[in-house]
Amino acid sequence: MTHIYSLLPTVLFMLLNLLPRTANGNANTPPDVVGLNSPLRLNADTTTLRLADYFLDLSRISRIESLHNEVQIKWKKGDANALLTATAQLPPLSVLTVTLQNDKQYAILLQRSHKVKHIVSLPDTENRYREVQIAGGFNNWNPKNNPFVKKGQQWQTELVIDPGVYQYKIVTDGNWHLDPYNPDSADNNIGGFNSVLKVLGNTQAPPKAAITAIDDKGKISLYTDQADAQPLLFWNNQYISDLPTPRKTSDGWHYEGIALPKEARKTERSWLRLYVCNTKQVGSDQLVPLSYGKPVTKATQLTRTDKETTILYF
After folding, report:
1. For residue 105, what are the CA distances in angstroms to 63, 73, 99, 264?
2. According to the CATH classification, is domain 2-114+204-301 in 2.60.40.1080?
């Protein structure tokens, strides 16, 4: 049995959303795909999936499906792009499957947008303003990007932004000034002040997960550190969905006996990829290079064609 724990930090850790979308040059790379499918980060509204970034022959694509009902897909055969729209109930990580005419199925990891919706309001009971806008660090200080709409006796605009702290000013009929209904302000370093907007994000600790062992029979073990953590495991571009019920121990939740695809033991170079999320946010990720189904533990086993490998610790 090869114990990944005993090799740490031998195992390759990296952020897979930085992987290049290029073929890895290996003879075992499936001819259907460009290379390892990089995760797709969704927008807050609609996301365009450019299929040519992942697949070599778009005419062979027969179906595109989401494993979660919270993702709506607009695509028909022959389209170069698919439009994805996700609801707020979508988990932080989910899986999209693409099936080809030969019934081969490939998986693409979807990462939910981090952005949140925040309403900014300005009361106007006396109808003093003809136009209200906002300018700040969230829209490149361009008031035209977020015009307000009059609703009853107040003006409103909806910001879709990442959690954080932003400086801004209200613009009424072309006049820039502090938000009179927000007491928080900060020195703008040019002799004046800006209003301060605080958009809170999730404060829950992100989950951790790791592949801990691969035995001689091709059985994978992994663990997570949180009860509500959801691990997502891939071999190359194949999603391994059949995970057992985890066993709780003092150091976390352990998943054991996960079957490595038989093809892995016939392939000179392949990859295990592990991601994890809880109900609120994305946690760690892990990339393990394999040689005929066994973890690569020496740098000499890697070649110039292993383009996905950017950092390896021994």
Report:
1. 9, 17, 4, 16
2. yes
